[in-house]
Design brief:
The structure is a single chain. By secondary structure, the protein is α+β, with helices and mostly antiparallel strands. The protein has one domain: GMP Synthetase, Chain A, domain 3 (2-Layer Sandwich), CATH 3.30.300.130. The protein is built from two helices and three strands, in the order αββαβ. α1 crosses α2.
Length: 72
């Protein structure tokens, strides 16, 4: 599962990197993906929107077991 999640995150990483940020997979447990926003995303007010509208939607489309994404 973690490999599938990492592969999907690699698709969105270049877009996040354009804004001097990154995303790191922390854990996957019972349908929830836990990630850490890095770089400029750490304090960006739009990072929650990126997380839900971008990362969560991509992961849900690619991996049927993913129900939600949470930042830690």
């Amino acid at each position: 599962m973690k490999e599938q999640i990492e592969n999907a995150l690699s698709e969105i990483r270049p877009l996040i990197a354009q804004h001097l940020g990154d995303i790191e997979l922390v854990n996957y447990k019972e349908g929830t993906v836990y990630v850490r926003m890095l770089g400029m995303c750490t304090h960006c007010p739009l990072s929650q929107m990126t997380l839900k509208a971008g990362v969560e939607e991509l992961l849900k489309q690619r991996i049927k077991e993913v129900e939600r994404v949470e930042a830690v």
